[in-house]
């Protein structure tokens, strides 16, 4: 199994970060890495996701939402191509540090026959995409928090 985890501290309340992170309709306005084109934030819902890792071609897939714990976590599982070839379980965790600071943890566990090869080729680009998304979420959340002060 292969795994990528990133985290970032955000100077904004957890509720604000969660709201932006789960407002799929507005992802294209701030998220350079991931677009969620369809789907609801409900356990069992199927999403339509396109990832744009830096330096790589976009990848589209249809993951299924596994868990939604408001203002704490949501996760999905999906496959590129056929299940068992290259599968990933993606998690977003929100940790409230205090009333105005939050940590976002974004992780994905990759499995499947081609996971080691694909991660060798694209792992750094995928991790860079996570980092870009985290930084963009930080900037948007902190700007929104300043407006609400």
TrEMBL record:
Protein name: SRPBCC domain-containing protein
InterPro entries: Polyketide_cyclase/dehydratase (IPR019587), START-like_dom_sf (IPR023393)
Pfam families: Polyketide_cyc2
Lineage: Archaea, Methanobacteriati, Methanobacteriota, Stenosarchaea group, Methanomicrobia
């Amino acid at each position: 199994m292969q795994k990528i985890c990133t985290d970032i501290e955000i100077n904004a309340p957890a509720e604000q970060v969660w709201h932006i992170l789960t407002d799929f309709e507005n992802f294209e306005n701030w998220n350079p890495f991931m677009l969620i084109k369809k789907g609801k934030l409900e356990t069992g819902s199927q999403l339509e996701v396109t990832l744009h890792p830096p330096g790589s071609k976009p990848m589209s897939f249809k993951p299924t939402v596994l868990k939604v714990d408001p203002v704490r976590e949501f996760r999905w599982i999906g496959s590129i191509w056929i299940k068992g070839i290259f599968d990933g379980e993606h998690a977003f965790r929100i940790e409230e540090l205090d009333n105005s600071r939050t940590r976002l943890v974004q992780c994905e566990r990759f499995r499947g026959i081609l996971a080691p090869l694909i991660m060798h080729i694209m792992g750094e680009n995928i991790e860079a995409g996570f980092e870009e998304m985290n930084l963009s979420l930080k900037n948007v959340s902190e700007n929104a928090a300043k407006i609400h002060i």
